[in-house]
Amino acid sequence: MNCIARVFLNAKEEKEIQTGFPWVFDNEISYVKYRKSEKDEWNQASLSDSTLENGSGVEVFSKAGGFLGTGIYNKNSKITVRLISSEHADKVFADIKSFWEKRIFDAVNIRNLKYSKQDSYRLVFAEADFIPGFICERYCDIDGKVYLVVQFLAMASDIFRKEILASLEKAVNPDFIYERDDADVRQKEGLAETSGWIGKSGKTFITILENDVKLSVDIANGQKTGYFLDQKDNRRLLASFCHGKKVLDTFTHTGAFGLNAFKAGAKDVTSVDISPEAVEMVNKNIFLNGAGKVCKAVCADVFDLLKEYESKGEKFDVIILDPPAFTKSAKAIQKAYGGYKEINLRAMRLLNEGGILVTCSCSHFFDSHYFYDMLMHAAMDSHKRVQILEKRGAGPDHPVLLGYPKSEYLKCAICRVM
Fold first, then answer.
1. I need a labelling partner for 417 at 20 to 30 A (CA). Which of 47, 88, 212, 349 fits?
2. How many whole angstroms separate alpha carbon 121 and alpha carbon 73?
């Protein structure tokens, strides 16, 4: 690939990129210079008038002409350029195979410092691992087979799928690779949705071992990539508070928090989800772990169930709130604030004296400032005093890239409620 264009930003738009932010939005671009070959003259045009092809390599410059980085251009997306390197294009594209191979090996090697061959974890975390829009989960089935589940969610990675997949084969040598490119976000990138095996076929239902808990994962139809690996370490920490306790696990998805509590010796565990399919999976996982005498799954709206429990005077020793993102845009933050506050307020009222609340938000728009402010006001309105024992996020397989707030999306507070 040749770099055939230069993108110049509006005044002062470079500041965010200089801190590490890897995106250039369409409204940040002043004009584009492009040419068909190195022998041709540069043409200058506005973004709307340029004939630059989607998927082209571009160099990004400040208004004053300072070089900022090399990226991939996509006029279909509001994120018009996704940066892939802080180096000049001629160096990046001179050996693109080696370029992506190094990125993959770097991601794999940093995980190898923390995880064993039997672990399941996120192997590549998109921009946070310098591979825009690319997600790769590594699942180890209990039979020892390694499954990779991949998502190419941006054109900036999709056009290099051949190089990226070859690099994964070389670095990981997986038994199977499954593609989950059935996400709506691909439409915003001008990409078709697709899913299925890449190469040979394996099982779509696999069983992984997390913190000594057996968990069934549906890699073909489960949410996103089949399972949420980001809470693995938080589930392990929760377990230390659960011996002999009565536990309520809400928005449970697969029942993983509740089953970690069971393994730690909880006396009673109720796992709740509004999805019948999720509850079916929870029951399957309860059976897998021989937890039927302690654990039960309930299909219900968590908001309604918390109200019902409160009206009946039900009490718990430990409550987990791990809801889906209540907001996926900055415009809906206040509405989300109300939703988060309601479930946290009711959970605080349902806890016995000194009970433990594990409360989470996975929306990057609902940042730490909003999250902990919400907790403070939930405590105030529930007439409780709350100690935050620990502030946590995703595990080390989800690195945070400085200058890219979206990579620090998960908030998890371990609280003592009095």
1. 212
2. 31
Q: Which residue's entry shows tokens 């670095």?
A: 171
Q: Where are the alpha helices (DSSP H) in 245-366?
A: 256-263, 276-288, 302-312, 333-350
CA distance 49 to 280: 53
Sign of CA dihedral 214, 115, 390, 371: negative
Please report the pLDDT score of residue 3 as a whole number: 58
pLDDT digits (tens, 9 = 90+) for 94-122: 999 999 999 999 999 999 999 999 999 99
DSSP 8-state assignment for residue 287: H
Bridge pairing between strands 29-34 and 43-45:
antiparallel
What is the rounded distance in angstroms from the CA atom of residue 64 to the CA atom of residue 140?
50
Q: Which has the closest alpha carbon to 55: 188, 192, 154, 128?
A: 154
Other beta carbons within 10 angstroms of residue 98's beta carbon come to 11
Annotated active-site positions, please? 362
Structure-token pair, residue 197: 């095996």
What is the identity of the amino acid at 237?
L
Measured distance CA(113)–CA(363) in Å, rounded: 28
CB neighbourhood size of 320 (10 A): 31
Whether the CB-CB separation of 33 and 58 falls below 8 Å is answered with no
Mean pLDDT, rounded, of the chain: 95
Cα four-point dihedral sign 112, 117, 119, 123 = positive
The tokens for 246 are: 């009565």
Q: What Å distances lie between residue 103 and 56, 85, 108, 169, 398, CA to CA?
A: 20, 11, 9, 13, 15
Q: Report the distance separating Cα 248 and Cα 237, nearest Å.
A: 16
Tokens of 370: 């909003």
DSSP 62: -
Vertex 286 angle, CA 280 and 292, to 5°: 115
For the chain, how big is the Rg over CA atoms in Å? 24
